[in-house]
What we know:
The protein is an alpha/beta fold. It has 15 helices and ten strands. The protein has two domains: 3-34 and 216-405, Rossmann fold, CATH 3.40.50; 36-213, Glucose-6-phosphate isomerase like protein, domain 1 (Rossmann fold), CATH 3.40.50.10490. The protein binds 5-phosphoarabinonic acid.
Amino acid sequence: MITFTNKTQYDAAAREQEAVTAAQSVEDGTCAGSAFLGWRDVPTTFLASDEYARMKDVAAEIRSEADAFVVIGIGGSYLGARAVIEALTPAYGRGVPQIYYAGTDISATQLAALRDALAAHKNIYLNVISKSGTTLEPALAFRVLRAYLEERYGAQGARTRIIATTDAASGALHDVARTNEYRMFTVPDDVGGRYSVLTPVGLLPIAVAGVDTDALLAGAAQQRQACRAPFAQNACLQYAATRTQVYRAGYAVDVFASYEPQFAILAEWWKQLFGESEGKEHKGLFPASIQCTTDLHSLGQYMQDGARIVCETVLAVDAEDDALHVPHSDSTADGLSAYEGLSLGAINRIAQDATIRAHRDGGVPVMQLTMPQRDVQSIGAALYFFEYACAVSALLLDVNPFDQPGVEVYKKNMYALLSDAVAKNAG
Ligand code: PA5
């Protein structure tokens, strides 16, 4: 389970009643956006479904047949999967199939480079993921990569290698998948993109990467129970309440910090979850991240000495990483001889504790979350913990945690400009 240590000067108990009421509205389905509460029980409901069994069979097929697997999706349609895969699989040589990501931007250079890289692979599978089925970035990437697969394997060969994860009943991707008879998985109607990592959206790529999805869901299900505990034993509600206190005290930015580079994409997932859920009606902490200790040599200066607008969410791991120790050297010139035999994990922990103390003493409210170890159950627990905390935290701001009206504004402008460009081309 995830534990919470409040290293701020703000008392979570001051918001206890509000947090408990917000959590109750999530539980009884009366909160804002209540049509999108499917994520709440998905760790148990999806585990028990036929679709989950079918998904594991397809993942096993891809693992045995493919040497490359391309995940096409943007925002909530890929970040969760990538966060889990990168948190749990070795940083170098992540294994077979090699996983690529596309549809996360509109860079021609990037997509052309991916197509070139795919030429070196023999058997390529694609998983195109879009709940709406109309998002431009993944739609463009899919158009290009589908054509590539059809060219290489023929229409029938491409058909067996393309899996679509989308709405059960409608949308452009749904229609393309039905027409071409692609295998399909469903994004549940009542689960929004950024809350969908524990549905086929995240779980198919995660299973293809060889991560044990049963254990991931078990960790999330255990955390679900912990999120319903009374406030005094409820790390999730205490975190949400403390964040709100800090925000109301005038802080503007919440920086997610971790001391494990394999959590870099988890930080991106956290930023998307909180940014799209809370940043509405001119409210909310701006979610940012630092990767430690790397960024202590860049943004660390601002954290310590810059404008006092920053608070911090630290995600720590309790178990010491003892993969490496400082080796013996006959030469003492590098000044490290005193540390011989110490594990790098212990040194990293000391750097973490020293930084937390420095930040706290320098006026940065620090909220520390700790997972027991970097294993699959703990990552499942962390995903659920953040989803629940984010929902409660957004409700404490009095905004709907599950919509994203602001994202539509750029899309509207872009489609208008695209129509102009098409008209100019035709003329
Ligand atoms: O959280 C969200 O709802 C968004 O970030 C979406 O996941 C993102 O915009 C992609 O949308 P779609 O899956 O419809 O392509």
